[in-house]
């Protein structure tokens, strides 16, 4: 830090490696670089920056409320910080993966971030009905699931979604083909122009989903969307397998009623989770698909720790 130079508050709204776009308190945006070799900032971070000619240097990152990220055996991928909500966009067609949906929901639960599931392509009657049925266990858990048609767009659907987004900072996730780019453009009509300007500012070439970008969706700047890279894999190697059931609401509802306090919910006698997975007519049953996902994830996370 340069002696005597003033520090200014800002918000990271885009990042490409060690280059960041920071929005100042007055609403201007400028390129900032992280100090040192290691880049710690992510979109959504509140920072203190210092002027350096026509650019800036990030000197300090404010403590985060949360950080949404995934981790595999090789690396950690941070999406965004200080979120109110994670919107997981899936589509009736191509069919979504229950495994990937569950992983994203678990990552949100682990950070205490409210999830919102949006099911696109309600105009495709048969695939949509099938997908809606698959989502029954998630609705039963209390997750909000919003039906959506983006092509052609349903004004009523869009209005309903905007109500869920109002006054919140929302990270948008979604696998390829779900319609994430279309959704962003419906909610932020000038998104393509803005991303082009960001890329030019950062001298980064064409903006693609390899970066993460913040968009304000109202003039008062109280509601924001964060567009993130699409994902095909979602590693959860940062999750302790013994806490996994706590981040799956359908299992968590029964986990405290097991005979043993350190129950893995895999084979122990007197396991309330196993009982709920074997009794579809009982109170708050666990679907066979969800229990299968738990078993597979528990094995994966246990293996990654040894």
Please give a structural write-up.
The structure is a single chain. With 306 residues, the chain is an alpha/beta fold. It has three domains: 7-61, Nucleic acid-binding proteins (OB fold (Dihydrolipoamide Acetyltransferase, E2P)), CATH 2.40.50; 67-227, Rossmann fold (3-Layer(aba) Sandwich); 241-303, Probable gtpase engc, domain 3 (Ribonucleotide Reductase Protein R1, domain 1, Orthogonal Bundle). 29% of the residues lie in helices and 25% in strands. It has nine helices and 13 strands. The protein has helices spanning 98-111, 125-134, 136-140, 155-165, 180-187, 191-202, 249-255, 272-278, 288-303; strands at 7-16, 19-24, 29-34, 46-52, 55-61, 67-71, 76-81, 85-91, 114-120, 145-147, 169-173, 212-216, 224-227. The strands form two sheets. Strands 1-2-3-5-4 form a five-stranded mixed β-barrel. A hairpin with a 4-residue loop joins strand 2 (19-24) and strand 3. The longest helix has 16 residues, at 288-303. The protein is globular and about 65 Å long.
List the helices and strands and how they pair.
Elements: E1 7-16, E2 19-24, E3 29-34, E4 46-52, E5 55-61, E6 67-71, E7 76-81, E8 85-91, H1 98-111, E9 114-120, H2 125-134, H3 136-140, E10 145-147, H4 155-165, E11 169-173, H5 180-187, H6 191-202, E12 212-216, E13 224-227, H7 249-255, H8 272-278, H9 288-303
Parallel strand pairs: 3-5, 8-9, 8-11, 9-10, 11-13
Antiparallel strand pairs: 1-2, 1-4, 1-12, 2-3, 4-5, 6-7, 12-13
